[in-house]
């Protein structure tokens, strides 16, 4: 019960008194088999009943009423059995997802060599239908509907629909094909979605789409899928974007930094081809373009360690500067590749994903694109391999 309720009870105001009444029923061996819980206080009102197996595992949970804080007001039932796995159903007026999102975004620890999880992945089915879901920064999805099933970390079916605003919707689904499961996600307001997910406010507006393929099961029983696909965001504005502000300063583009503090910089298209393997997102040939800037990038982001490595080219005034890239033959020489212009500066970024070190080489602005690679940043574009297990000690004969 504690693990299930913790994300919701964490929104309970600190210092506010509350009472808990717990009635337990034990079997002949002294094991807890049933529990009835009642929570009451100025900011919480909930009651629940739970049933446990002889080994102490949660088998059934029924919460006919849960009210906590400003945004939690729902009904939850959860069952677990060997055949169906976990089946959860949530309905009601409101759910506070901020703490749940925060928990998911914490860096994941990698188990030591030889200590990987050996238990087989368990199936699950989750159904949620709520009048509203409150995300980070007070972003609200209303209404919200989710139907999700799968095994372990591998989803099998997905149907997600939510309303961001009067003009923006969210939709996601999974369809099967010979090459794997196709995962599609679309959001009518990319800036509002990103603000709700991670709390960032530097991207405003835009239409977001993700189209990815989840690889077929490997048969190794780890349940961890690989993904490959592309993220696309169109017609958005960047304001006070820390990474770009540092990049402009490092490249000595005096005056451009003022754009980010005013009305922002318009971006027509951002395309990020990516692959996900072992919790590492690899990016290749990513590019962003708009009248005021062009940007390319290659690198990776390690979800386990929150480490990033990225390198590419920043092109100022891309609307004019990038025209050269469209000239046959000459464009590939002077612009090097799509998303770069005749004038550009190479950059690299590495370190913590929250606060990466950004460097640029202003000298590269003096060279045409095909020679610009000489001044390319030195970021390590592949994550370091995991340490090899120690060699066995051989006894002398």
Concise synopsis of the structure shown:
The chain has helices spanning 2-9, 98-104, 190-198, 242-250, 257-261, 318-321, 330-334, 369-372; strands at 19-26, 32-41, 44-52, 58-68, 72-81, 85-96, 123-134, 140-141, 144-151, 154-163, 169-177, 180-187, 203-214, 227-238, 265-277, 280-289, 293-302, 307-316, 345-352, 357-361. By secondary structure, the chain is mainly beta.
Oligomer: single chain
Helix-strand makeup class: mainly beta
SSE order, one letter for each helix or strand: HEEEEEEHEEEEEEHEEHHEEEEHHEEH
Number of helices: 8
Q: What profile does the largest beta sheet have? A: 20 strands, mixed
Give the tally of β-strands: 20
**Proportion of strand residues:** over 45%
Q: List segments where confidence is low: pLDDT < 50 over at least 5 consecutive residues.
A: 1-8, 374-379, 387-391
Instruction: Give the overall pLDDT as a whole number.
Output: 79
- Roughly how many Å apart are the termini? 56 Å
Choose one word for the global shape. elongated
Whole-angstrom Rg: 25 Å
> Helical content, roughly?
10-25%
Indicate the topology.
Elements: H1 2-9, E1 19-26, E2 32-41, E3 44-52, E4 58-68, E5 72-81, E6 85-96, H2 98-104, E7 123-134, E8 140-141, E9 144-151, E10 154-163, E11 169-177, E12 180-187, H3 190-198, E13 203-214, E14 227-238, H4 242-250, H5 257-261, E15 265-277, E16 280-289, E17 293-302, E18 307-316, H6 318-321, H7 330-334, E19 345-352, E20 357-361, H8 369-372
Parallel strand pairs: 6-7
Antiparallel strand pairs: 1-2, 2-3, 3-4, 4-5, 5-6, 7-8, 7-9, 9-10, 10-11, 11-12, 12-13, 13-14, 14-15, 15-16, 16-17, 17-18, 18-19, 19-20
């Amino acid at each position: 019960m504690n693990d299930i309720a913790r994300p919701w009870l964490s929104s309970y105001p600190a210092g506010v008194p509350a009472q808990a009444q717990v009635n337990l029923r034990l079997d002949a061996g002294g094991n807890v088999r049933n529990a009835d819980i009642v929570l009451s206080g100025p900011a919480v009102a909930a009651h629940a009943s739970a049933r446990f197996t002889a080994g102490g595992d949660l088998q059934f949970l029924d919460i006919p009423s849960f009210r906590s804080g400003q945004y939690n007001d729902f009904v939850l039932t959860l069952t677990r059995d060997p055949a169906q796995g976990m089946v959860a159903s949530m309905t009601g007026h409101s759910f506070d997802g901020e703490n749940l999102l925060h928990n998911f975004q914490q860096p994941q620890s990698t188990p030591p060599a030889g200590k990987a999880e050996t238990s087989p992945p368990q199936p699950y089915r989750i159904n949620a239908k709520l009048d509203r879901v409150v995300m980070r920064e007070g972003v609200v999805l209303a209404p919200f509907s989710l139907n999700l099933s799968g095994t372990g970390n591998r989803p099998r079916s997905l149907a997600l629909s939510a309303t961001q605003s009067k003009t923006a919707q969210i939709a996601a689904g999974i369809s099967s094909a010979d090459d794997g499961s196709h995962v599609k996600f679309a959001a009518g307001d990319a800036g509002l979605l990103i603000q709700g997910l991670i709390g960032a406010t530097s991207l405003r507006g835009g239409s977001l789409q993700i189209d990815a393929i989840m690889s077929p099961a490997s048969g190794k029983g780890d349940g961890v899928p690989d993904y490959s696909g592309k993220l696309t965001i169109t017609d958005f504005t960047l304001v006070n974007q820390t990474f770009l502000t540092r990049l402009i300063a490092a490249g000595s583009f005096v005056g451009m930094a003022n754009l980010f503090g005013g009305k922002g910089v318009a971006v027509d298209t951002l395309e990020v081809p990516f692959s996900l393997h072992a919790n590492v997102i690899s990016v290749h040939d990513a590019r962003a373009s708009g009248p005021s800037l062009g940007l390319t990038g290659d690198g990776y982001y390690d979800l386990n360690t929150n480490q990033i490595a990225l390198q590419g080219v920043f092109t100022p005034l891309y609307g004019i500067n990038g025209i050269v890239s469209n000239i046959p033959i000459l464009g590939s020489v002077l612009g090097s590749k799509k998303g770069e212009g005749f004038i550009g500066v190479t950059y690299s970024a590495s370190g913590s994903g929250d606060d990466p070190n950004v460097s640029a080489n202003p000298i590269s602005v003096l060279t045409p694109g095909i020679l610009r690679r000489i001044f390319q940043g030195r970021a390590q574009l592949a994550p370091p391999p995991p340490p090899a297990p120690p060699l066995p000690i051989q006894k002398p004969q």
